Amino acid sequence: MIVIPAVDLRDGACVQLVGGEYADERVRLEDPLAVAREWARLGFRRLHVVDLDAATGRGSNAATVAEIVRHGGFDVVQVGGGVRDESDIERLLDAGASAVVVGTRGLEDPDWLREMAERYPHEIILAADVRERRITTRGWTQTLPRIVTDVVEELADLPLAAVMVTAVHKEGQMQGTDLPLMEDVVDASHVPVFASGGVSSANDLRALQDRGVAGAIVGMALYTGALDPRAVIEEFHDED
């Protein structure tokens, strides 16, 4: 399993939110490119970037995203947030993103997701954000009457790069991950599963790894120092 630092963008800054709530911002760093470069300097080879403003319809951090993709120093950068049509996918891939993370449109419009996955095989990551196993969309503001494992099973034949599941009810709280959820998603999925939400320790990472998770997206625990990035890189890294 690999560990992937998260750079979440809001108003041009790198932030960390608790529980997906905009009112509960715990971390704010004003130079996201410098943040990304520091993660690269420490030895992380893959980065996860999310434009929170685009995801929630509050604005766009497109220029900052492009700067991080081009100059952050990573082998692989996966980017999401507000990807609603093919032009967004093309723009991000043209900017150098290795994979594009699709959430709301892909979950609300399965036919479109299928078309995009087949047109860009292994370059689309489906982001399934959940609260208590129910899918949430539009920047965590709407809950759909769909269970995440059912969604994953329905997409079994698509050439996706991965499925990324964020336990929004655990996000930023550093109180442990939703292990039963992640285990069930891994069992249901035919593509690699990335897990996000609640990681607080190396033991949380080991537990995810033991359940077959391919990658863990980590934010708050790295930004607050709860996890030692060098120790994380040594234990959890890309295979050459």
UniProtKB/TrEMBL annotation:
Entry superkingdom: Bacteria
One term of GO molecular function: 1-(5-phosphoribosyl)-5-[(5-phosphoribosylamino)methylideneamino]imidazole-4-carboxamide isomerase activity
EC number of the protein: 5.3.1.16
Keywords tagged on the record: Amino-acid biosynthesis, Cytoplasm, Histidine biosynthesis, Isomerase
Protein name: 1-(5-phosphoribosyl)-5-[(5-phosphoribosylamino)methylideneamino] imidazole-4-carboxamide isomerase
Pathway: Amino-acid biosynthesis; L-histidine biosynthesis; L-histidine from 5-phospho-alpha-D-ribose 1-diphosphate: step 4/9
Signal sequence residues: none
One of the record's GO cellular component terms: cytoplasm
Main localization of the protein described in the UniProt heading: cytoplasm
